[in-house]
Amino acid sequence: MSESRYDPRYDPRAPDEERPRPFSDLPPPPPDVVPGGEVYDWFVRGVDLLDNGDTNAAVQLLSHCAQAEPESRQVREALARAQFDIGMYDEARENFEWIISVNPADDYAQFGLGLAATKAGDLKSAVEHLALAAAMRPDIAYYGTALRGARAALTAAQR
């Protein structure tokens, strides 16, 4: 290794407290910025991201939508779905609960809240909301399947 190419800042033998962070000479990243376009454009793009499996990006974009339009049930539902998909069960529960507070007859929100409660370990609440969803829409088989699974988990947990 020639002396002209040696850079002591990146010497692995240097003590940890003296080693600079990589890219420390670069400016900090810009603050969180609002995406370009209208809220509807963000929503459409967020749902596309969610449908195509890019749930982390969907959560970011749909969170901006929810801040801009906090009373939109469609935005809250899409955000809750994305949050559920990446394991943000408590946040998903909050959004599904908000939807139910506005429209208690929303079977999908009852179902989503039940699934999120199951994942969060609140099996009693899960059974309650899944039972409501299954009663509202007995024609949707996976509502009943989820309810039976939650009931079985609750029974096993009580033993």
Automatic annotation (TrEMBL):
SMART domains tied to this protein: TPR
Parts forming coiled coils: none
Location of region: Disordered: 1-31
Keyword Transcription regulation in annotation: no
SUPFAM superfamilies hit by this protein: TPR-like
TPR repeat locations: 73-106
Keywords: TPR repeat
Start-end of Basic and acidic residues biased regions: 1-22
Signal peptide: none
Record keyword NAD present: no
Pfam families per the UniProt record, alphabetical: TPR_16
Protein's name in the database: FIG140336: TPR domain protein
Source organism of the structure: uncultured Frankineae bacterium
Lineage of origin: Bacteria, Bacillati, Actinomycetota, Actinomycetes, Frankiales
